[in-house]
Each structure stands twice: as C-alpha cells, then as structure tokens.
Amino acid sequence: MTSPHDLLAAVARGVDPGPFALVRREGADHLELFTGTVRPVERLADVPLPDGPPGPRTLALVPYRQVTERGFDCVDDGTPLECLEIAGHARLPLADALAALPDAPVATADAGFDIADAEYADIVARVLAEEIGRGEGANFVIHRTLRAAVQGSPLVAALAALRRLLLRERGAYWTFVVHTGTRILVGASPERHVSVDDGLVMMNPISGTFRHGGTADRAALLRFLTDPKEIDELYMVLDEELKMMARVAERGGQVVGPYLKEMSHLAHTEYLLAGRGRLDVRDVLRETMFAPTVTGSPMENACRVIARHETTGRRYYAGVLALLGRDDAGRQTLDAPILIRTAEISPAGELRVPVGATLVRHSTPEGEVAETHAKAAGVLAALGLRPDAPDPGPGPVERLADDPEVRAALAARNAPLARFWLDQRPTGAVALPGLTGRRALIVDGEDTFTGMLAHQLRALGLAVELTPWHRAADDGYDLVVAGPGPGDPRAVDEPKMAALRGLLAGRLAAAAPTLAVCLSHQLLAGLLGLPLRRRDAPYQGLQRDVTVFGTSRRVGFYSTFTPVADADRVATPYGPVELSRDPVDHAVHALRGPGFAGVQFHPESVLSRDGLAVLADLLGHLLSVPPGRAPADAHPATAGSAHGPADRG
C-alpha cells in the first residue's frame, strides 16, 4: 500500500495496513511514506543496503542494546534491531497530511513514571557522588520512563499524536510515526545523531534546556545562555562528539555554531560538526553508538555507569532511526535522528515515554527531576497527557534566535574555545619542522579523546598510530603518548592502571620520549614519587587559565584526581623534573624531565584554547624539534564555515 491516502483511510476503517513509516524531516513541506516488509537482523553490518537506483533502501530501528557491538555494557532487554526494507516511497504534502490524519483526543489511563521523583532524585545524588565525584566521567544521562495505557486503537492514537506534533511542535529534526506490526514509535526528535551525504559526515550535539512553556521570555533566555551549567553541558557533549568525528572523518570534525534550537516547550543550544569520510555508513553508525547527549562521557565508562544505576533496559531510547539509501551517483547515504522525545506503543496499547537528564558537576537532584518532566512535555501533550503549548496561530512564529543580544550571547560562547576545531586552514599550516617521517603511538586508556589528540599530532607533522591500553607494544616509536581515561590512578592492581603504569615505567627506564595526558599524567607523577590527591570538587569539563612552564595557557580539565607537590623542581631516579603547580593548592598541572612530560589537562579538548601551542612546546622538548611557526589557536573568534570541513592536514 504505497498511497498515503489509501493507507490512512485503511487505518480509519480499523484495518492494519502493514508496516510503514510517515516522516517529516526538518524544514520539509511534505511527509514521506515508506512501506515494505520488516525483518530483524543481529548486527548493524547486516542492515540491508543493496545497489540500485537512487533513493531510500532501509529504515532501521536501532535499539540501545546494540551498543554491545562496541563491547560496551548495557542492561540487555532483548529489544530487536528491526529493518523496514523499503518497497514503496511516496510524498504527501503537509496540508494534505493534516487533513487526512485523525483529529481526535487520545484517551489514556494509569499514567505515571516508573521511577518516582524522590527515587530518581536519589539516583541523581548517587551518580554525582559515586561516579562524577570519583573520577568515572564528566557527565552521565540516567533515564526514567512514563508509562500509561492507550484507550482504543494504538495506531489511530499514534497518528492523532503525529498530527498534533506536526501542528504544535517546531524545531524537530524528524517528526514521525513508525509502525512495524510489533510496535509503534511516534515522536518529534530535535537531534540529528549522524548523517552522511556526498561523503560529508555531520553530527549535531545538542545540550542545555531552556523551559519556556510556549511563551518567549527574552530576559530569562539571556540568563540561560550565560548559565555556567548549561554552557558546560554543551561544551562537554561537543567534546564527546568531536571524539566520535575523529573516528569517522578523515581529519576530524569542524565545529559550526552555536545555534539556538527552538521548540514548542523548550529551547536548546546546539553545534553542528562536519567532516569528510569514506566509511560504509553502517560502520559510521557503529562507530558513533551512541550520542553523549543521551549516554555521557567518556562513552565506554558512561555505559558502565548507566548499567550500574539503571535497573531496566532502554529499549529504543537513546538509539536511532536510521534511513539508509543511495544517491544519484550510487554513493551511500544516511540520515539518523536520535530516538528521544518519542513514545513507544505496543499492539496492546502499552505506552512508554522514556526521558533522561544530563548529570554534570553543577547538577542538583531537584533540577534534573524537573528536566525530565520538561523533556517529556511535548510528547505527553501530543498524547493528551499534559497541557498543550499555546497555538502559535497563523503567520510567522517569533524567533528568539533573531534577537541581536541572543545572537551575541551565543557567539560569545566560542571566544574561549580552541580555534583548531573551529577554523579551516590549509594542509601543513601548523606543521613543525623536523617532524616529517617521525612516528608516534597513542595508547588509549578508554577515553577516545585520543582520537582528537591523533588529529592534532598529525596536523603538527607526526605519523600517528592509535592502540588500546591492553594491546600497547613499544615497537620503535619516536614518541609514545599515554592517554587519558576514567578511574582511580591509586588502584594498584586494576588491570588498566597496572598496564599503563608498566608502559610508563618501561619508557622511563629506557629514557624514551614519552608524553602522558590526564590519567597517565597522574600515573607518571606517581612513578616519579609525587603523591596523588582526590579533589574535593571534580574538575570535569572545567576551563582554567594556568601557568605552564612560565606561560599562561587556557586549557580544559576532565579530572577528579591530581598529583601535588611542594616545590617547582624535584629530584627523581630519572633525573630532575620541573613542575608547573597551582599556587594555592599545589596541584601539578604539568611536568617535564629528561625525555618525558605530562599534563593534567586535555590539550586536545575544545576547551583548551591554547592546547595546540602546548603540544608544540612539548614536542620541541621531547623530540628536540626546532621552533617553528606558533600554532594559531588564539586569533579572534569567528564562526566556522558551514560549507565544508576544515582541512587539518
């Protein structure tokens, strides 16, 4: 059944029309109807994408449990990866869709969250204290689910909800109904996870939630745009998605924005990332499972934390809808929104609306409880479970983003960020003389910041390889970079800590050039005899001006532990070591000795405005590189171009 009118008429008669999806993509004046057959597959690599004429091939419903393909933990609820193999594709003008979709209230009963507000607040408090407070990561998303029973036909209810979403919700990336025969998904997702078109990979990190209830309040919005918690949330997910772009784009991602995404009940802040890549789109999906905005960072440990604190599986929440196809040249295409602001309805009428809150060091349990209610509001209003937003009426809707002060507040967010990720530059523009042909190995400590670090070191001129901590082999590299990761560096017998400590000890004994970042900096400091201290307040996603070997640098920290020292120079079995210390608490931000160096901050982070300059200085120390052009990381802030990715050469 490929005619939208025939399909909707069949539903109105109480006939199941078979599997289909109705989708309105952002800015479109029509809906797309996809019809075909549904079959489950085990892995993303099994999602069908046959050759043939241009057009869509498969709509995949990717559940959260698919993250196990990357070896990450989850509460495995057995939710299937289902594929709608598209046999029919038609368009329906938006006005015709609104006329044809059922215009009726959705009756529900027994609505309530599966986790009560007080219990959810307790979980938030535990995550803040036991996870962020103990160095397990910078942010984590914990979900809860509103459940209810739909009265009457679930499919009619879903289509009626779709009509209300089309009328009342704005700013959604996809607004959709997907019916597989075993489940119905209906929602308005604000967030693109990843797309691929003409070889251009794009991601869209969104974070920060301004609750306005449909009424513009300029003063309140300006306060939101300067709120440190909201700013930090967006910066942290920006860093995390840059890590993903480092895996799927040849030179990493260029940052464009930030922008204000306005919806009927909420507004969010967002960036756009773009980079060129050649991977199969199914590999792009696998390498980017799943968005930090619905999981946390660093990603692998975020999944462990989620599995520790969530007692039920996430089903499709935090997964994606993925539309795979071919373009006119036969190249693969992908468009994948994140499955948030989405209701799942069973054939028996069981309704689930999962929502989550992003927990950072500034979070409060009460604030995160309120955020889950706000995020559910749009879908719940469409289903008749909450008051609807005011009808905007005819004519253009007032856009808060058009206000000059709002634009200025958004632009100001880029001023302290690393220009390396915001600007285009010609190949070789920041390369240092003397590095061509020299090899570096980066050892990943379970934080894929190492992918970003690899792009920066390549831009500086090194040939770089990347390996996980449990496979590291010191094999004649000119430089080994021991990378960051979560966990307590004081854990003597923990396998990762023992492996990284052994690697560093071997490099020190051989007097082989070594750079240690964050966690590995702490381990290096311990080998040098410096004590380690857990901070009273975590430095997760914190930007600071610190002195690094006599020069003031603006850098980003993601750490809970730090080495400390009482002097600027110490004698060690490996020679004299120079320290850059905090003048108040004596935390060691950086150290260097004969053939080795360590930094507590992340020079590769978007928060490290001067990170590239720090790396250039350290390479000069470690590899006796003659001074060259200073990396231009501190020139005036201008938004990146939206026309293509930066060439980071």
UniProtKB/TrEMBL annotation:
Residues 118-375 form the Chorismate-utilising enzyme C-terminal domain. It comes from the Bacteria. Residues 441-618 form the Glutamine amidotransferase domain. InterPro entries: ADC_synthase, Anth_synth_I-like, Chorismate_C, Class_I_gatase-like, GATASE, TrpG/PapA_dom. Its EC number is 4.1.3.27. Residues 629-649 are annotated as: Disordered. Keywords: Glutamine amidotransferase, Lyase. Pfam families: Chorismate_bind, GATase. It is an enzyme of class 4 (lyase). The keyword Lyase applies. SUPFAM superfamilies: ADC synthase, Class I glutamine amidotransferase-like. It catalyses: chorismate + L-glutamine = anthranilate + pyruvate + L-glutamate + H(+). This is anthranilate synthase.
